[in-house]
């Protein structure tokens, strides 16, 4: 099939490359001409494991091209997949990119004689496609729905595993206005992907995506709430608690003698909180949508509140251990919101670094690939912030280290390296990757999220 993808960011580029690899003719469209040029030069504009070689292959064999000319793309294709950003701003989802894009596509459809389906892949609040997008397309094209098709096909890929997730999806959800729209979108996936195709209406497709992200985000905040209770009590390790809870066969069934260990249980772990381009904004958008309908979603509010407090709790615990943070040299290990991505959007590292700087600490941060994006995100806070080439540089003579992102190279730092490089090492393990007893044997003051030694608590009482 001939497919246009409008918006060539994380989702647009991965979708475009993967659909081209499955044999479709894909035109990726973006307003940013540097993205277009780089893709046509076979250069990936985002970091995503496995993306580079497939991109090179599909550009070379002519299955993928990039343009900044939307008219050309829509005229040459059967389907336009909208994958523009849907940020959160001013208390609600910002639909300006969706509205702009739908308006432009609508005007082009005015001049197009053959049937064309517009498919929203961006994450949007329920009713956006069947009200806002539909009405803009009808007005701009001068045509009634039916003369063109309309669908909503949410994307569930995870950054860092985006290619794998797109190529082997768990399910493909297609919200369709009518049978004809469904049949076109179904043809993109049917027989090319081994996954159940779930047909629903437009607003159900939108709700499935929000519900999925809100559930995962809630599990993380739930785990962090339990971690805080453990910290306040002392002598309880949240890691032991959550690991035991997730051995329940309802979470972790056995296949033969072996535990299945479903990915879902990874969300039941305490840490620095969730970040990235999706969970925070999507939960906030669902809250705002829900309230616009007159319902206050208390659980979702708590999910966000806990998440925003969690990085600050970590800094407070560091302060409790070190005393005043003024002029203390703090190494921050990890900037990206999770390993295997350079995405800094809403990363907990941003809150942690800003709080450390507010307390007049000197921050030395390291990350294998996110430094460039971190530099942009933290440019205005830069005076006492240094980005380091590697963890060794960040740890050199540091008073404390905060592990924020569990990159393998950080998780495998040995206790001897900490001792050799740092002053009187204090390690705040925001992801629980180090072994407390091994660290303590070497004289390291170890602070783990969701773990407070009962002896300290009893001394304080
Ligand atoms: N990033 C993820 O992991 C992920 C996963 C699932 C769903 N989503 C959803 O997918 C959507 C896109 O997310 P993203 O992270 O890829 O966004 P992004 O910001 O990385 O990319 C959006 C791109 O759209 C381009 N753009 C905006 N308006 C345009 C227009 N009118 N014409 C052409 N190009 C235009 C921008 O220049 C930008 O390159 C969002 O709704 C997001 O919530 C994202």
Please identify the top-level CATH class of the largest domain. Alpha Beta
Which structural category fits the helices and strands? alpha/beta
Q: Taking strands numbered 1, 2, ... along the chain, how are they ordered across the largest sheet?
A: 3-2-1-4-7-8-9-10
Largest sheet: 8 strands, mixed
CATH superfamily of the largest domain: NAD(P)-binding Rossmann-like Domain
Please report which band the strand proportion falls in: under 5%, 5-15%, 15-25%, 25-35%, 35-45% or over 45%: 5-15%
Approximate shape: elongated
Q: Count of DSSP E strands?
A: 18
Mean pLDDT figure: 96
> Which spans have pLDDT < 50 for at least 5 consecutive residues?
none
First-last Cα distance: 69 Å
Treating each run of at least 4 consecutive H or I residues as one helix, how many helices?
19
CATH architecture annotation name of the largest domain: 3-Layer(aba) Sandwich
* Bound ions, cofactors and other small molecules, one mention each: nicotinamide-adenine-dinucleotide
The tally of domains stands at 2
What's the CATH topology label of the largest domain? Rossmann fold
Calculate Rg over CA atoms: 24 Å
Word description of this protein:
- With 461 residues, the chain is of the alpha/beta class.
- The protein folds into two domains: 2-200, Rossmann fold; 213-460, 3-Layer(aba) Sandwich (Rossmann fold), CATH 3.40.50.
- The chain is built from 19 helices and 18 strands.
- The strands form four sheets. Strands 3-2-1-4-7-8-9-10 form an eight-stranded mixed sheet, sandwiched between helices. It has a six-stranded parallel sheet with strand order 15-14-13-16-17-18.
- The mean pLDDT is 96.
- Bound molecules: nicotinamide-adenine-dinucleotide.
């Amino acid at each position: 099939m001939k497919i246009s993808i409008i918006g060539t960011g994380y989702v647009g580029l991965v979708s475009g490359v993967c659909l081209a690899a499955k044999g479709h003719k894909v035109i990726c469209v973006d307003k940013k001409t540097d993205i277009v040029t780089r893709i046509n030069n076979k250069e990936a504009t985002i970091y995503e494991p496995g993306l580079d070689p497939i991109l090179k292959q599909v550009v070379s064999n002519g299955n993928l091209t990039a343009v900044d000319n939307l008219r050309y793309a829509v005229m040459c294709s059967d389907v336009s997949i909208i994958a523009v950003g849907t940020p959160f701003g001013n208390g609600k989802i910002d639909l300006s990119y969706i509205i702009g894009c739908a308006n432009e596509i609508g005007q082009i459809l005015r001049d197009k004689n053959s049937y064309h389906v517009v498919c929203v892949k961006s994450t949007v609040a329920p009713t956006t496609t069947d009200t806002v997008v539909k009405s803009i397309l009808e007005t701009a094209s001068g045509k009634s729905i039916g003369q063109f098709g309309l669908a909503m096909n949410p994307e569930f890929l995870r950054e860092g595993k985006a290619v794998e997730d797109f190529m082997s999806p768990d399910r493909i959800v297609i919200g369709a206005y009518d049978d004809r729209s469904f049949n076109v979108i179904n043809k993109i996936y049917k027989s090319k992907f081994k996954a159940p195709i779930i047909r629903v209406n437009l607003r159900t497709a939108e709700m499935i995506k929000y519900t999925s992200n809100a559930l995962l985000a809630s599990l993380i905040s739930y785990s962090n709430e339990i971690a805080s209770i453990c910290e306040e009590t002392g002598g309880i390790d949240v890691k032991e608690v959550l690991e035991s809870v997730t051995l329940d066969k309802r979470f972790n069934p056995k296949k033969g003698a072996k535990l299945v260990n479903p990915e879902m249980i990874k969300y039941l772990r305490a840490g620095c909180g969730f970040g990235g381009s999706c969970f925070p904004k999507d939960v906030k958008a669902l809250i705002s949508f829900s309230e616009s309908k007159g319902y206050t979603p208390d659980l979702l509010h708590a999910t966000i509140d806990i998440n925003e407090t969690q990085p600050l709790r970590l800094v407070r615990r560091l302060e409790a251990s070190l005393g005043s943070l003024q002029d203390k040299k703090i190494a921050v290990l990890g900037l990206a919101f999770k390993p295997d991505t350079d995405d800094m959007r809403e990363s907990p590292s941003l809150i942690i670094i800003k709080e450390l700087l507010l307390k007049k600490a000197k921050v030395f941060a390291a990350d294998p690939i996110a430094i460039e994006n971190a530099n942009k995100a933290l440019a205005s806070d830069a005076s006492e912030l240094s980005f380091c080439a590697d963890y060794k540089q960040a740890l050199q003579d540091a008073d404390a280290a905060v592990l924020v992102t569990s990159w393998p190279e950080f998780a495998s730092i040995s206790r001897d390296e900490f001792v050799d490089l740092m002053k009187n090492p204090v390690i705040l393990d925001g992801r629980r990757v180090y072994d407390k007893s091994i660290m303590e044997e070497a004289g390291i003051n170890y602070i783990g999220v969701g773990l407070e030694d009962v002896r300290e608590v009893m001394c304080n009482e």
